[in-house]
């Protein structure tokens, strides 16, 4: 009998297979499957609130453990480019690393 953690992992794998992109990750010979998302961040300065759009890269924890400064390169024309992990990655409850990134020029 398969338990809940195995079902959650299978659903996460299915989402990455369907919506993910293959990417080269610095320090790793084999490509990894990632998902790229836009995310709204709110910055507050006293009574002023500014909304800004940021990009995050999601990667499964069983594929690798990302670190600040890592470079991610995606070749798909829709999201092509290279990004640097700009802050310490956070792991969510599904075992997925959420990496805030900035574009590398």
Strand content: over 45%
Helix content: 10-25%
* Sheet of most strands: 6 strands, antiparallel, barrel
Structural class: alpha+beta
In words, what does this structure look like?
By secondary structure, the chain is of the alpha+beta class. It has 1 helix and 7 strands. Strands 1-2-3-7-5-4 form a 6-stranded antiparallel β-barrel. The longest helix is centred in the first third of the chain and has 16 residues, at 4-19. The radius of gyration is 15 Å and the shape is globular. The mean pLDDT is 90.
Provide a concise account of the structure shown.
With 105 residues, this protein is an alpha+beta fold. The chain has one helix at 4-19, and strands spanning 21-25, 32-45, 48-60, 71-74, 81-85, 90-91, 96-103.
Layout of secondary structure:
Elements: H1 4-19, E1 21-25, E2 32-45, E3 48-60, E4 71-74, E5 81-85, E6 90-91, E7 96-103
Antiparallel strand pairs: 1-2, 1-4, 2-3, 3-7, 4-5, 5-7, 6-7
